[in-house]
Design goal:
Number of domains: 3
Shape: elongated
Largest sheet: 3 strands, antiparallel
Distance between the termini: 81 Å
Helix content: 10-25%
Strand content: 25-35%
Length: 184
Amino acid sequence: MGTRRHGWVLALVLGATACSSAPPTGRPDDGSEIVPPRRNTETTGSSDELVPSYGGSLGPSTPSCSDGLKNGDETDVDCGGSCATTCAEGRSCGEAADCSTDLCVATKCCSRTSPTTKTSGAVSGTGQICCDGAAVVTAVKDCGQGTNHTVVKVSAQCAEAHEGTGNNGTACVEITCAVSTCAE
């Protein structure tokens, strides 16, 4: 009788082991299919390695500008890079075009403060006016009178007024300068 009991216990243990190693069946709570592991022949050429197979979706396979993730070439979550949405002040950037403030300093979208206005006054020929120190030109305005004159921004800190040939007035340029600051 002792041998039968041990045999029965051994059969029970072996049966339980066989059941626990069987692949799961049915549907999980999310409604996806449970698929047993498959043999990996793609990376090694060998079928000795088991890799999981998934019947459900793991989310978007390609980056999107509306997936709540910083992926693809986005400079921050769902903004910058090739996304149509620019990044708000304080978010990461790679260049000024990534920012709604049009200013990227040390990979952070920043705003400009302390605007001051400077005017070249009447110009004969070409006149240049520049912002002082670290300030940059944020606006260029033609303040000339008459016709045949132009104003142009020539750098981040300077603009010029050009008196054209046959000018029948005055050339003048007005710039607004502002210092770059970043919100903490």
